Description:
- 32% of the residues lie in helices and 26% in strands.
- Strands 3-4-5-6-7-8-9 form a 7-stranded mixed beta sheet, with helices on both faces. A 5-stranded mixed beta sheet has the order 11-10-12-14-13, sandwiched between helices.
- It has 265 residues and is an alpha+beta fold.
- The chain is built from 7 helices and 14 strands.
- α4 links the parallel β10 and β11 (182-184).
Amino acid sequence: MNNNEIFASASSWIKEAGERIKKSFKSTLNIETKSNANDLVTNIDKETERFFITKIKERYPDHKVLGEEGNGDTLKELSGVVWIIDPIDGTMNFVHQQRNFAISIGIYENGVGKIGLIYDVVHDELYHAIKGEGAYVNDMRLNTLGEVTVSQAIIGINATWVTPNRRIDPVILGAVVKDARGTRSYGSAAIEIAQVAAGRLDAYMTLRLSPWDFAGGLVLIEEVGGVASTLKGEPIQLLDENSIFISKPGLHEEILKKYLGNREW
C-alpha cells in the first residue's frame, strides 16, 4: 500500500465531495429516516457515498469499501485494503444547520489504520494523518497531546447519556460531567474526535457508534498520542458498534479508574 499516493487521491476526492455537498445547500433534500425518527439520511448522503465508491473502484479495484449507507462491500474481516467511509457524519446538523457535519474516511490495511481524514466541510478544515507521519489540520501539524485532570477537562458528551436512557445508568457519566470543567456536544462524532486530536476537547465519550463514525478519527488520535478504547477500557472492534472513549493520556486512565471501573453495565 502506497500511503502517500492513496492519501493524495483521498484528500482530492474528499475536497471534491465537499464542494458537491455545498452546492446542494440550495436544493430540496429528500430526507428519510432509518432506525428511528432522529436517524436521518438524505439523497446527498447516498450520492456522496456512491461518488467515493465509484472513484475508489476505478482507481483501486482491489480495495474494499465499508460505507454507512450500504453501497459498498459486505465485510466480515478487514483483510486487504479497506476504506471505511461516512459520507456525511452529522446528518441532522446538515439538514437543520448546513454546518457542523463532516466527511470521514479511514483507510485500513489488514486491520491497521494507515490513513485518516475528517473534513469539516463548511469550515474547510481537513484533519488528516498518515500512520507514522503525524496529524494535521490543513497544513498545520497538530501537537502531541498533554495530560490534564478531570477538573481541568472539557469533555465532548451528548446529554442523552446523562439523562434516563436504555443503554447506561446516567449516574455513571453524570459523575464525570459534574466533576469536569465543562462539556460540549457538536452532533458529529467525527468532528468531536477531530477536536480531541486538535486539543480543543480533552475527551469524547459516547455509546452506539458504528465503524464509519470513528475509523478515520482513530488514525488521527494515535498520531497525537491520544488513547482510544470502549467505555469499559476494552479494545475497539472495527467492524462492530461500540461505546467509545477517546481522551488525552492520563485523563483516560483517571476516568476509567475513578468513574467507569467496577461498574455494572
